[in-house]
Design brief:
The chain is an alpha/beta fold. It contains seven helices and eight strands; from the N terminus they run βββαβαβαβααβαβα. Strands 1-2-4-3-5-6-7-8 form an eight-stranded mixed sheet, sandwiched between helices. Helix 6 links the parallel strand 7 and strand 8. Helix 2 packs across helix 3.
Length: 269
């Protein structure tokens, strides 16, 4: 199904950490309703090193999710270096709250909301999955909703902000040139996993140079230690940034793995 018009996540006057009221500073979410919805929804966070939004990791992914009966929402989150933490992370948390608040009127299940991210978008998704977010405004009905997703799908994700496996551009855009050790640890999401972290699917390639596979491997170890259900696909080739996998018969298999994972977790019923 075609996309619906983008919707602002906050009223213009209530955007936290806003630097202006310019259109480019608005945080938008674009709904892609499934033709035959099954009640599950997924927020899509395209990658781009926290400095851009990769188009091939946005609408094409939403349309593929539609084929599974999933209603997709593509998130236009704020970008560095103009915006940094916590503004960008709040955009991801607000997206989960927004979809959960609007679930009933859209015919969606409020406890079947996932988040899917690529590269730096995977860092945003994993931040939302591993951190708790207090309401910014108790009078805002959207803010009173839980920001915890019910599952996450992370494709060649940036996970750590620590040496030696961090992605320099993503860290610089999110945390600045010289972040404190405390901030680096806080946004190294393999160190933030708890038993409350939702089920997660990880996809990576062992020859990924910009974002080393250790980002996913170490995250998987943390998930295992915390008893969090997870699945992982690691491919011998592919590098970084292949989106849906194109015509590569191996890389495109992550879509089948994702469908199987979601079915196993009860999100495709």
């Amino acid at each position: 199904m075609a996309a619906e018009p983008p919707e602002p996540l906050w009223p213009d006057e209530d955007i936290p950490y806003a630097l202006s009221d310019d259109h480019d500073d608005r945080i938008l979410i674009t709904p892609y309703p499934a033709d035959v919805p099954n009640g599950t929804s997924v927020i899509v966070c395209p990658g781009g090193g926290y400095g851009g939004h990769a188009p091939h990791e946005a609408e094409p992914v939403a349309l593929w999710l539609n084929t599974l009966g999933i209603t997709a929402f593509v998130l236009k989150y704020r970008l560095g270096p103009r915006y940094r933490y916590p503004a960008i992370s709040l955009d991801g948390a607000r997206a989960v709250r927004y979809v959960r608040h609007s679930a009933e009127r859209r015919g969606l299940h409020p406890q079947r909301i996932g988040i899917l991210g690529f590269s730096a978008g995977g860092h945003l998704a994993s931040t939302v999955a591993t951190h708790s977010f207090d309401p910014l405004n108790d009078t805002d009905p959207v803010e009173r909703r839980s920001a915890r997703p019910d599952f996450a799908v992370l494709i060649y994700p940036v996970i750590t902000m620590s040496e030696p496996f961090f992605h320099a551009g993503s860290r610089r855009n999110l945390l600045g040139e010289a972040p404190s050790p405390e901030m680096v640890m806080r946004l190294s999401n393999d160190s933030q996993v708890t038993s409350a972290t939702p089920p997660i699917l990880l996809v990576h390639s062992s020859d990924d140079e910009p974002v080393p596979v250790e980002n996913s491997l170490n995250f998987a170890l943390a998930l295992s230690a915390a008893g969090v259900p997870f699945a992982m696909q690691v491919y011998a080739h592919g590098g970084h940034g292949y989106g849906l996998g194109g015509n590569d018969e191996v890389l495109s298999m992550w879509r089948q793995a994702c469908a199987g994972f979601l079915r196993q977790q009860g999100f495709l019923e």
